[in-house]
Design a protein that fits this description.
The chain has 370 residues and is of the alpha+beta class. The chain folds into 4 domains: 85 residues, Beta Barrel (conserved putative lor/sdh protein from methanococcus maripaludis s2 fold); 89 residues, Elongation Factor Tu (Ef-tu), domain 3 (Beta Barrel), CATH 2.40.30; 63 residues, RNA polymerase II/Efflux pump adaptor protein, barrel-sandwich hybrid domain (OB fold (Dihydrolipoamide Acetyltransferase, E2P), Beta Barrel), CATH 2.40.50; 87 residues. Helices cover 29% and strands 39% of the residues. A 6-stranded antiparallel beta barrel has the order 2-11-14-13-12-15. Helix 2 runs antiparallel to helix 3.
Length: 370
């Protein structure tokens, strides 16, 4: 009886196992086919650029300051004003200097009067000496009288020379007073634009204290710092690609005009001045980036159109050996026209889906379009 029961149990169990196996077995999944264009990653020689940042400046900048002490009466310009060479920018109080000029002119006049009187006396003494010489030849004067007349003529001539020197000194004082008075009018050294106004009327100006800054009109320069380890790649006259943040996204070509021969001891960098092309969008003080060519290197490039952005990450659909697309994350480098460098995520000669747009192609077989 027990043997029959065990046989029945085994039969039921075998049937159940067979039923379970029949339920679990399923047909293999079907891979969806999608048509798309395919591109290939490639290795190319790309330029190695040395990047440096700097600021836009005028070729010449002048900081106008006073040469004499004085209270500022007028400031004739504001920031952004265009000025011409010689135009008055600041007027100082000139009362004290005018008084000094008048005093010097009075001294000159007195010296000129004294010189005229000394000239008359010297002329009289000279004519008297000439008459006494005639009388001396006729034995009509004594030697003592002749000596006295000669001494008076010499004294009159010496006095005239002294007075002439005093007149010259007085004239120099007048010229100096005129020069000092001219320092009360501060003028633009060249035509340009006022970029800074540091004072207002009523302020006391002192020699050497900046008052107005003027940038010369015309083309501008980007002044960039280049590390001493890379300065050997830069030379005067070389062409440089420059991008100015405030002048739009379009880059421009500049020319290295000057390399300051001494390095900054604190930063160990050299100042490089780059001439920029004329542009109405350029302004002094703008921030810019310069790229100096420094040889070439090999890089893996793919078309920009194959790059997919997922959130903040760059990706691409890469085809495996069966033509099935897999989403792969990339690390991108610099752009090279319509191509972009891939630093990691793709090897050379791999196939990628071109222009996938917003389609989800992961796990799908790609049928290549011509």
């Amino acid at each position: 009886m027990k043997t029959v029961l065990w046989a029945s149990l085994l039969a039921v169990t075998a049937a159940m196992v067979a039923g379970c196996h029949g339920t679990d077995s399923a047909s293999p999944a079907v891979v969806q086919n999608v048509q798309a264009r395919v591109v290939e990653s490639q290795v190319q020689e790309v330029p190695v650029n040395l990047r440096s940042t700097g600021t836009v400046h005028a070729k010449e900048t002048a900081v106008v300051s006073a040469q004499v002490m004085g209270r500022i009466q007028q400031v004739m310009v504001h920031e952004g004003d265009s000025v011409r060479a010689g135009q008055t920018l600041v007027v100082l109080d000139d009362a004290a200097l005018r008084a000094a000029l008048e005093q010097a002119q009075a001294g000159l006049k007195a010296a000129q009067n004294a010189q005229a009187e000394a000239q008359i006396n010297a002329s009289l003494a000279t004519s008297t000496l000439d008459r006494y010489k005639q009388l001396e030849s006729e034995k009509s004067v004594s030697p003592q009288e002749m000596d006295e007349v000669s001494r008076r003529a010499e004294a009159a001539e010496a006095n005239l020379e002294a007075v002439r020197a005093q007149t010259g000194e007085a004239r120099a004082q007048v010229n100096g007073a005129h020069t000092m008075l001219g320092y009360t009018l501060l003028a633009a050294p060249f035509s340009g634009i006022v970029t800074a106004r540091m004072v207002d009327p009523g302020t006391m100006a002192a020699p050497g204290v900046p008052l107005i800054q003027v940038d010369q009109a015309g083309a501008l320069q980007l002044q960039a710092s280049v590390d001493e380890s890379a300065i050997g790649a830069v030379h005067k006259g070389m062409k440089v690609q420059v991008a100015i943040d405030g002048a739009g996204s379009t880059s421009m070509t500049g020319t290295v005009a000057e390399i300051v021969p001494a390095a900054d001891p604190s930063s160990h960098s050299f100042l490089v001045k780059i001439d920029l092309p004329s542009s109405t969008q350029l302004r002094g003080g703008m921030y810019g980036t310069a790229e100096f060519a420094n040889g070439t290197r090999q890089a893996i490039l793919i078309p920009r159109s194959a790059v997919v952005i997922r959130g903040s990450l760059a990706c691409a659909y890469v085809l495996d050996g069966q033509g099935i697309a897999q989403l792969r994350y990339l690390t991108l480098g610099t752009g090279q026209g319509n191509l972009v460098e891939v630093l990691s995520g793709i090897s050379s000669s791999e196939k990628l889906v071109d222009a996938p747009s917003d389609r989800d192609l992961a796990g799908k077989r790609i049928e290549v379009l011509p």
